[in-house]
Amino acid sequence: MIHITFPDGSVREFPEGVTGFQIAESISPRLAADVLAVGVDGVTYDLSRPIEQDASIQLYKWDDAEGKHAYWHSSAHLMAEALQALYPGIKFGIGPAIENGFYYDVDPGEAVIKESDLPAIESKMIELAARKESIVRKEVSKEEALNFFGQKGDEYKVELISDLADGTISFYSQGDFTDLCRGPHLQNTGEIKAIKLLSVAGAYWRGDEKRKQLTRIYGITFPKKKMLDEYLTFLEEAKKRDHRKVGKELELFTFSPAVGAGLPLWLPKGTILRTRLEEFLKRIQKRFGYQQVITPHIGQKELWVTSGHYAKYGKDSFQPIHTPQEGEEFLLKPMNCPHHCEIYRSSPHSYKDLPLRYAEFGTVYRYEQSGELHGLTRVRGFTQDDAHIFCRPDQLKDEFLKVMDIIFIIFNALDFKNFEAQISLRDPNDKEKYIGSDENWEKAERAIVEACEEKGLKANVELGEAAFYGPKLDFMVKDAIGRRWQLGTIQVDYNLPERFDLEYTGADNQKHRPVMIHRAPFGSMERFVAVLIEHTGGKFPLWLTPEQAVILPISEKFNEYAHQIAQQLDLLDIRVSVDDRNEKIGRKIRDNELKRIPYLLIVGEKEMEAGMVSVRKQGEGDKGTQSVDDFANAINAEVEKMMKAM
């Protein structure tokens, strides 16, 4: 007999070799029907996998991330089984579960798999699922695995197996399909109900642009059709909010093949939006005692060797820039931190000088693979709202609290009310992965935990997720349609002050190392704007929107009056444009409402004679006639009220 400990601390005896399914069934048949996988001492098992020794367990259902993972991982195998039946000779790369659904990278040989082929693949998946084929795990030797896939001629699996250690390899089989896989999986294919294949894309094998491009097929499955229908509705809403689509409609940014992939060009309206975000954060930072700095876009290679970034980002960065001087090399900077360390080091500091808070909207560059690029969310050149705080150890917690205050102000101002936090700490059982003394780590971790407690912030604690140089606090926000985005990070660093030999003179007249805090509330301006577009659907708050109002003359003879009003409003600090196209007023109203402009000002004979404007508000319709001054005062008062609330 073995002892099984449940999450509530209770312990029960079961025969050695009992499965997760049998344990669930011993509690209730209903539970057994709902459970998808089982956690055994923190490792997720298939429900049919024997448990051979005393263990703590957790039963995972659909609402658990581990349950979804097993469900979607099995769905990836079901799709692969269908592809094998439909495309004889097809070869398989990897097929993981992802945050929403799954994908499989495949090499169909001479065949071409298109979007139009997905319904046929779906139908085959439904047919195979109906057979309720058992999904069986088998542990195999490395030699056996190599022989199996070598005989199949599947070089991708052979390459993956070559990187694995003997004794760690397992196969999963269902029907005529066998795959190299760690699992976990469902008990049989019949548990997979509602199926939808979503898209086809290209993906280089192992993310290497020099390797063959495979076909990546994305899909998602659910236990109930209603859940799939709800998800497809969500996808339609997400398409409407796609920042690439909305950004084009609102004329915010563009990309040019002549400039280069992943290098966004900010158009005038997008520049206004971004500039207002920067000005907003600069005002907050001034209130909290930050000093703005500006650093070059490049630095000598040795700077990045000293910081450790060359070892970490060298392969992913743009290659060194060679100057006419022999042996001299520069790099486009992947991070702003080393430059800020050099600013700190440029003059001596006393303990009385600290903390020093350097802030910069610094543009950095990383050579992302072309297949990884995605609108503004994944680019090769981006601007971080970076700041580095150099403080004494006894100031660490207070500085951390102040950075949290800044992040909360931003979230409130931009209506990110639904967010969660994660504290990432060192793995206490593997301290060799980290640098710095135990004492410093304990101080840093305690400061983060205590700061969260003082703010009443409930944060998930994850062991082993800290950066190698220190613990951190990350913020994940949910947007208006429930998607999670990581925005805002605060990291504690004892590493760079050591590497750059940073010092301050203490009250004891001895030299001491400062502690360094990295913080970026937006993260990057590009990604933050993308998230903001998708959160708001392009309907930005009045204080932020590039155009607060547009003037619509009813006909050409009122164009001059419209431009006179625009000049008046511009002097009253209202961001305004004129739509003087030779179009009917109904068309102008529709077009400008699609541009999400908050106020539409209509002018004709009556308005010109009275020196007035007819006001329409986005989403609310006609608001009556007002004088130009009254309208401007109302807008500025509305903005001022918003700003005070921040």
From TrEMBL:
Q: How is the cofactor bound here? A: Binds 1 zinc ion per subunit.
Q: Which residues form the TGS domain?
A: 1-61
Q: Where is the Aminoacyl-transfer RNA synthetases class-II family profile domain?
A: 273-541
Which domain of life does this protein belong to?
Bacteria
**Any Pfam family the entry gives:** TGS
- What reaction does this enzyme carry out catalytically? tRNA(Thr) + L-threonine + ATP = L-threonyl-tRNA(Thr) + AMP + diphosphate + H(+)
- What interactions and quaternary structure are annotated? Homodimer.
Q: What is this protein called?
A: Threonine--tRNA ligase
The species this protein belongs to is Microbacter margulisiae
